[in-house]
Amino acid sequence: MTRSQTGFPKGQEKSGLFNVEKIRADFPILNRKVQGNSLVYLDSAATSQKPIQVIQALQDYYQTCNANVHRGVHTLSQEATNLYEASREKTQAFINAERSEEIIFVRSTTEALNLLAHSYVMELLEPGDEIAVSEMEHHSNIVPWQLICQKRSARLAVVPITDTGEIDLQELDQILKRQPKILTLAHVSNALGTVNPVKEIVKMAHARGVKVCIDGAQGIPHLPVDVQDMGCDFYCFSGHKAFGPTGVGILYGRLEVLEKLSPYQGGGEMILSVTFEKSTYNELPFRLEAGTPNIAGVIGLGASVDYLNQLDFSALAAYEDTLLEYATVQLLGIEGLRVIGNASSKVGVLSFVMDNVHPHDIGTILDQKGIAIRTGHHCAQPVMDRFKIPATARASIAFYNTKEEIDKLCEALQEVYRIFN
Amino acid sequence: MPDLTELYQEVILDHNRSPRNFGKLNFFNHKSLGHNPLCGDKIKLYLQIEAAKIVDIGFQGAGCAISQASASIMTEILKGMSLKEFETLFGHFHSLVTGQSVEIVQEDLGKLVVFSGVSKYPLRVKCATLPWHTLKAALKQDKETTTE
Questions:
Q1: Is residue B80 part of a domain?
Q2: Are strands A37-38 and A33-34 parallel, antiparallel or unpaired?
Q3: Residue-range definition of the domain harbouring residue A265
Q4: What is the CATH number of the domain that holds B22?
Q5: A51-56, long-range: CB within 8 Å, 24+ apart, which pairs?
Q6: How far does A377 lie from chain B, in Å, by closest CA?
Q7: A240 and A264 part of one domain
Q8: What is the pLDDT of residues A64-117, one digit of tens each?
Q9: Do B64 and A358 touch (CB under 8 A)?
Q10: How many structural domains comprise chain A?
């Protein structure tokens, strides 16, 4: 499925094969050297690199129309407001939300989840209630829920994962039968790369009357997202993992549910009137966006959406799939190396461990060769516990990576093995 | 570009593969757990202290080569040492791995000089010092310490 099939005007796609060298030319950082070697950036699941178009959009905003939004009557304020609101509409189209008010700008996926936990779910929670999370969640999709559970004497119900790193759907249904107040789940696991069958899961949950929030932080950079087709009640993601700036993210909510959210933070922008006796609140989406927002970040996010829209998404996805498959085969050929997470559907992430070598040592040695990977628990300690390992090394790919870079990774890993064994 | 063999010297690799004084002591009067949440390094230290002297020392742990070799070499060197000597040596070791005035103290460090390469890797200093901080915590009877 291409992005254009998910609600974008057709005719924007380019035909032909994916030209990675042309793409790489858009990402200035890929030209730099690290420790005397060409940078091999394999840590896009932590944060993606940014194309020049996004960097330029940030600079243009500050150089030409820097002003506060939704407040001034002057020209600059109007221009900034237009760009800011245009990003909302671009994002709405990008994930095929029905209305632009369903797009709330936040700081990050983490903030979106905290907002949802505090402004919606906490108010529904009674002592003894459950919130369903999966065993593969990032800490940011565990801790906010734990915090509200503590406040309301409620508890987390944990959906287990299988040995290959997939959601156990039977166990999930058992938990859904108990009517948790919400099911919150990663679209794609940051530690394992598993793509969860979110559409099927949403159907299962809705059949039991359970609302669903999808943490799309790792999904949005790799997969076409159509929130109406998926059917989820909430979807959130961060700009910086999807080739946009840091400090900006999205909470999408179906309007009918989103309207039930109470204000999260108080301040300017989110009110209609304020007296010391009582304030009345603004309408959506402004009610949930208190204070001066990250205007440049939001505009940059719009630029990253524009950037992704001009790519042929089906060619891009095919290229990424081929690269991941190539990397998996090459890694498995390395002595002493074991891949963690073998789901049938994966994107972007290769987590692995090596006999007699701690991931941290792998990371240091690779860095000396200019290769950036992530090592550690990836903010997913329950996943590490599940597989009885303290940590993994994680190479994560984006569409700007190449087979040559995977070869460099494998060559370096062979040297790591030789040093320690 | 720093040479990798400077960080991963043979002595370090050897202690990582075959750690000395590994295991819980039968008799101990001090213990502490140290961990580095960033990379998951963990060290459990057991100490028998008598008359301000480290009579016996053992450790258990899991983590990167630098942290495990540091624990192994530390236990080897400290056995029989007075607590005052430990304090001085920790100061020297800290200077070594953070790259401060190394030439002055190097001869006092003995085998610990194998960790001189760590100073070129600022992110790994905490790995090397974890066992030492854990020992300090054990002396203070802190249950848990961290190098984060």
A1: yes
A2: antiparallel
A3: 55-309
A4: 3.90.1010.10
A5: A51/A26, A51/A27, A51/A243, A51/A304, A51/A307, A52/A26, A52/A27, A52/A28, A53/A26, A53/A303, A53/A306, A53/A307, A54/A243, A54/A244, A54/A245, A54/A300, A54/A303, A54/A304, A54/A307, A55/A28, A56/A303
A6: 7
A7: yes
A8: 999 999 877 899 999 999 999 999 999 999 999 999 999 999 999 999 999 999
A9: yes
A10: 2
Would strands A183-186 and A130-134 be described as parallel, antiparallel, or unpaired? parallel
CA dist., res. A79 & res. A77, Å (int) = 5
Q: Is residue A238 helix, strand or coil?
A: strand
Please report whether residue A143 resides in a domain: yes
- On whether both A267 and A336 belong to a single domain, the answer is no
Per-residue pLDDT tens over the stretch B68-83: 999 999 999 999 999 9
Give the separation between CA A316 and CA A397, rounded to whole angstroms: 12
Q: Please indicate, yes or no, whether residues A46 and A7 belong to a single structural domain of this protein.
A: yes
Query: Which CATH number does the domain housing residue A385 bear?
Result: 3.90.1150.10
Identify the band that residue B102 occupies on the pLDDT scale cut at 50, 70 and 90. Answer: low
- In whole angstroms, what is the distance from residue A282 CA to residue A308 CA? 32
Q: Hey, which residues of A are catalytic here? A: 379
CB contact under 8 A, A390 and B7: no
Tokens describing residue B114: 């194998």
ipTM over 0.85: yes
Is the entire prediction scored with pTM above 0.80? yes
Number of domains in chain B: 1
Domain that holds residue B120: 4-139
Same domain, residue pair A169 and A274: yes
Contacts of A357 in chain B (CB under 8 A): 65
Q: Is the pLDDT of residue A3 over 50?
A: no
The DSSP letter of residue A352 is E
Chain A residues in contact with B71 by the CB 8 A cut-off are none
